[in-house]
């Protein structure tokens, strides 16, 4: 009797365990079975409102369980897409959300999304990922290189094509890792080489003098004069505060970038655009730039003018305010500087110049007076000397300060903006 009862208990426990297992499966976790040296998992999910059984495979059982849970969650959130049917547009939106948005700077993310929206989705977005073979992709990049009027594809520069290829390569690499595709074909695609061109502005010494005179007559002209004589990037000048400037040391510290950042939702729809401080482009962008004596005196005079206008009695009160601001008291964003310079030059019937050409003008003037290239590299904040020229040597701060004095004000013009007239000034020519 004892043995029967004991056997009954064992049998009851066995049935209980089976019941638990069955109940566990009915919760929607699905089933797992060995297959082809790995494990196959089967779950039932809803796709477009309809129940559908899907199969997942992985050699690692623990990873398979995670993938099954993930697929179930995505289905519940209406985000699940079958791997063999997912389109490039669907994947790029998913890729941005899970692989890029948490890890890159907002401005970088903005660049990715804008290229994807403008240059990729209109032409390749509807293709299933698994159908995008080398032939289709090579044809697309060939069209970008030459232009294709029938397809509505205009010709793009090698630089832009390189950027598009880089985005797709990252997205396809992650797709391969996530087993959306078997392999990434992007590295095999031929694209035009980006030719480095020396960016020497086509502006004569006489035109440089005319330009200075034009800028001196404009409200925000001082900012452009500053860029012309320091080589800072537009966003760097916008992010510069008075605490970054030292009259005693005759230098400015480049520490912030200021500009417009556009934010998008997960469907690539624009949410908002804001103007904000951003990190600098590269670690080498964080630098101290020496000022020529005349420019240092000019900046000091301008500082005294601003303090007078605000009723400040010492520089500390000014420290956290931007050096260059518009009439509303806002920092000058890179977008503002580009647009405003264009309007200024058109108003004075002067040839078109971009803000970056003012920066390049500074570099050209440095080369013309034989300032060592490694010093110019430091002024410009280039990550590599090869960006400036072709070599790099150890940076020497003392040499840096002395070399800048080789530069003179353009045609020895007295650079005193009209707004500073009447302020005691030691500006030298």
Provide structural commentary.
The protein is an alpha+beta fold. It folds into 3 domains: 25-77, no CATH class; 88-188, Orthogonal Bundle (DNA polymerase, domain 1); 205-420, Orthogonal Bundle (hpI Integrase, Chain A). It contains 15 helices and 8 strands.
Residue-averaged pLDDT:
80
CATH class of the largest domain: Mainly Alpha
- How much helical structure, as a percent, in the residues? 40-55%
| Biggest β-sheet strands, sense, barrel | 3 strands, antiparallel
Could you tell me the CATH topology label of the largest domain: hpI Integrase, Chain A
Number of domains: 3
Secondary-structure element string: HEEEHHHHHHHHEEEEEHHHHHH
- CATH architecture verdict of the largest domain: Orthogonal Bundle
**Total number of helical segments?**
15
Please write out the topology.
Elements lengths: L1 H28 L1 E5 L2 E10 L2 E9 L2 H16 L11 H13 L5 H19 L9 H13 L11 H20 L27 H12 L4 H10 L3 H5 L6 E2 L4 E4 L2 E8 L5 E9 L8 E4 L2 H18 L23 H14 L7 H14 L4 H8 L4 H4 L8 H7 L26
Antiparallel strand pairs: 1-2, 2-3, 4-5, 5-8, 6-7
């Amino acid at each position: 009797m004892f043995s029967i009862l004991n056997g009954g208990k064992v049998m009851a426990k066995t049935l209980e365990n089976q019941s638990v297992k069955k109940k566990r499966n009915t919760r929607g976790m699905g089933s797992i079975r060995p297959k082809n040296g790995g494990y196959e998992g089967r779950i039932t999910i809803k796709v477009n409102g309809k129940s559908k059984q899907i199969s997942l495979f992985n050699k690692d059982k623990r990873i398979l369980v995670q993938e099954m849970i993930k697929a179930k969650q995505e289905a519940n959130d209406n985000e699940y897409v079958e791997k063999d049917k997912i389109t490039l547009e669907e994947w790029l939106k998913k890729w941005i959300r899970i692989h890029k948005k948490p890890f890159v700077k907002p401005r970088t993310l903005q660049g990715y999304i804008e290229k994807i929206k403008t240059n990729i989705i209109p032409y390749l977005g509807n293709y299933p990922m698994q159908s995008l073979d080398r032939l289709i992709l090579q044809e697309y990049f060939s069209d970008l290189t030459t232009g294709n009027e029938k397809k509505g594809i205009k010709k793009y520069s090698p630089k832009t094509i390189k950027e598009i290829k880089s985005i797709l390569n990252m997205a396809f690499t992650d797709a391969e890792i996530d087993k959306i595709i078997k392999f990434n074909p992007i590295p095999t695609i031929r694209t035009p080489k980006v030719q480095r061109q020396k960016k020497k502005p086509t502006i004569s010494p006489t035109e440089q003098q005319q330009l200075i005179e034009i800028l001196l007559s404009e409200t925000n002209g001082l900012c452009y004069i500053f860029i012309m004589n320091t080589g800072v990037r537009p966003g760097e000048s916008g992010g510069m505060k008075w605490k970054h400037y030292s009259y005693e040391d005759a230098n400015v510290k480049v520490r912030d970038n200021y500009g417009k950042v556009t934010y998008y939702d997960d469907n690539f729809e624009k949410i908002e655009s804001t103007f904000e401080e951003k990190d600098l482009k590269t670690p080498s962008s964080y630098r101290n730039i020496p000022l020529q004596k005349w420019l240092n005196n000019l900046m000091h005079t301008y500082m005294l003018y601003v303090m007078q206008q605000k009723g400040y009695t010492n520089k500390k009160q000014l420290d956290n305010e931007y050096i260059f601001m518009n009439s509303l008291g806002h920092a000058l964003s890179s977008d503002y500087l580009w647009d405003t310079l264009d309007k200024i030059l058109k108003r004075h019937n002067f040839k078109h110049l971009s803000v970056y050409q003012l920066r390049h003008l500074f570099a050209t003037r440095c080369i013309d007076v034989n300032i060592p290239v490694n010093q110019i590299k430091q002024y410009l904040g280039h990550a590599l000397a090869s960006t400036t020229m072709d070599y790099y040597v150890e940076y020497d701060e003392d040499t840096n300060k002395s070399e800048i004095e080789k530069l003179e004000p353009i045609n020895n013009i007295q650079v005193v903006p009209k707004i500073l007239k009447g302020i005691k000034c030691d500006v030298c020519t």
